[in-house]
Amino acid sequence: MNMRFRLLNQPDIKEVTGKTKTFDGAKLYLPHKLQDPMTALSTKLPTDGSPVTLYLKFIGQVKPDDCIHLFNVLFRKIMYTLKMTQVGRNYFDPKGGIAVPQHK
Fold it and tell me: Which InterPro entries match (predicted)?
């Protein structure tokens, strides 16, 4: 999973996809449409430099009614940037706790 993120952040891939993107490890959301419906991009692995080909396939535009997955990925990225910690389905500030001495 980390290698997928690292590959998408390679400079030669960023030239095609652009700076703004949302990626969860499987789905890539871009604010613009790529020129070809099936795009093949060549780069090198950051670890050993072996050549890799990335294939980006245009599936379709996301309609406003079907944006739940996109919003979940965006909010997870925002919470990570704000240094919030996920506990169950909720996010909390780990440094914002209030001690209640009578309840230990």
Answer: PAZ_dom_sf
pLDDT tens sequence across 33-79: 988 899 999 999 988 989 999 999 999 998 888 899 999 999 999 99
Contact 61, 20 (CB under 8 A): no
Confirm whether 80 is domain-assigned. Answer: yes
| Residue 102 counted as domain residue | no
Q: What ranges in the chain are assigned the alpha helix state H?
A: 2-8, 11-17, 68-81
Enclosing domain of residue 84: 62-95
pLDDT tens by residue, 7-43: 999 998 999 998 899 999 899 999 999 888 999 999 9
Are residues 56 and 88 both part of a single domain? no
For CA atoms 61, 64, 66, 70, give the dihedral sign: positive
Task: Please report where in the chains the tokens 């780990």 appear, as a residue.
Answer: 94
User: Which residues neighbour 58 within 8 Å (Cβ) at sequence distance 6 or greater?
Assistant: 33, 34, 36, 37, 38, 39
